[in-house]
Write a structure and sequence with these properties.
Elements lengths: L3 E5 L2 E5 L4 H14 L2 E4 L10 H13 L8 E7 L6 H9 L6 E6 L19 H10 L3 E3 L17 H16 L5 E3 L5 H10 L5 E5 L1 H5 L2 H4 L17 H12 L5 E3 L8 H4 L14 H11 L6 H13 L7 E9 L5 E2 L5 E2 L14 E5 L2
Parallel strand pairs: 2-3, 3-4, 4-5, 5-6, 6-7, 7-8, 8-9
Antiparallel strand pairs: 1-10, 10-13, 11-12
The structure holds zinc ion.
């Protein structure tokens, strides 16, 4: 049994760092353990121009401690305002400002997603341009509202997208580079196992969808810290996900979807969507890979497959994880004294939850 593992410093293919004081509190946490990340554009206002992406990148880099190298890859939000010319400009990296992806959220889905198209298929000009130049499309693959504006069952949202929208999208734009983000259902996993291809159709996996199923989410009342979209699903879905990552497929990579919220929003009666996992994500991935006997697949999943899709080099630095129990007991606190609780913490988690791997200091 391995007691430690040393891998190239990981890359997070899906990270929310927010803005302002929250950004300054959470960015150093990811930067300490990851060499870089694809930064999500669902800020307020959303990132729709290369100029906004450049300013946002500057804000992220300013929050990275001086001694650390952290490469934020910036993305644009697929809103109705997003212009094909802006995508082209960003992808070309004019004036040293490269944009690496465009993110699509389903209408009405999750935090700050109200600017999206009702259906991704409506964004024809944008998709055509992306296909032409090779700009990756990152998909939050869920259907939330039907044609009559009625809400769909949130547990079916991802499988509806997989059954209907995704095949049509791939058929209409056969050369489009696509990443299906945060897979959560057996149907999505089946689809990706059949159709996934490195550099063309890839997928990301969160630590919380690997670690938990809905028994945890409903353990002793509903667990706000596990409330996210896509919802944490059944034990079967989780097993299916674990079985897939164990295969070490080159088109599957780590995307934490770490998504911090202030305590007041997370623990309100209508708790905000998003799992904040930056303080424990790497450790959770290592724990699951250890449990399924796949530690030999961990480096490709964490550190190689993501950079390869975005066309950047993997890190030249390494990080070592040790098999050693520990627990999160304190929240992250912003400079405005706002508490941000991470998944797995002893107080709001599932109670005395132990993490079995930790990063060597
Ligand atoms: Zn996200």
């Amino acid at each position: 049994m391995a007691e430690s593992i040393t891998i190239k410093k990981p890359f997070d293919s899906h990270l929310h760092v927010r803005q302002g004081a929250m950004l300054r509190a959470v960015t150093p946490i990811s930067a300490a353990k990851f060499a870089g990340a694809l930064i999500m554009p669902n800020t307020e206002p959303p990132i729709e121009t290369v100029e906004q992406a450049a300013a946002y990148k500057k804000e992220v880099l300013a929050a990275v401690p001086g001694e650390i190298t952290f490469e934020p890859l910036m993305s644009l939000y697929l809103t109705k305002n997003l212009k094909p010319s802006e995508i082209e400009k960003g992808f070309a990296g004019e004036n040293g400002m490269k944009v690496f992806a465009v993110k699509s959220y389903p209408y009405g889905a999750t935090t700050n997603s109200q600017w999206g198209y009702r259906s991704i298929l409506e964004a024809q000009d944008v998709l055509k341009k992306m296909e032409e130049i090779g700009m990756p499309l990152l998909l939050h693959g869920e259907v939330h509202l039907n044609d009559h504006d009625e809400e769909e069952d949130p547990y079916d949202a991802e499988r509806m997208f997989i059954a209907d929208v995704l095949p049509r999208l791939l058929e209409t734009y056969p050369k489009l580079k696509v990443s299906l983000e945060h897979m959560s259902s057996a149907e999505a996993i089946d689809f990706m196992e059949k159709n996934g291809e490195a550099g063309k159709l890839v997928t990301t996996v969160t630590p919380h969808h690997l670690m938990y199923d809905r028994r945890h989410a409903f353990s002793g009342g509903y667990r706000a810290l596990l409330h996210c979209k896509p919802l944490i699903k059944t034990a079967h879905d989780r097993e299916r996900l674990r079985y897939m990552v164990k295969k070490g497929l080159p088109f599957v990579s780590a995307g934490t979807d770490s998504a911090p919220h202030p305590e007041a929003k997370k623990f309100s009666s209508c708790c905000a969507f998003g799992v904040f996992n930056a303080p424990v994500a790497l450790e959770m991935y290592a724990q699951v890979f250890d449990e399924i006997g796949a530690l030999d697949k961990l480096e490709a999943f964490l550190s190689l497959n993501g950079p390869q899709f975005f066309g950047v080099e993997p890190s030249t630095e390494t990080i070592t994880l040790l098999k050693k129990d520990w627990q999160v007991t304190e929240p992250v606190v912003t400079e405005e004294d706002i508490k941000v609780w991470s998944v797995g913490d002893a107080k709001h988690g599932l109670g005395n939850e132990m993490l079995h791997w930790q990063v060597q200091q």
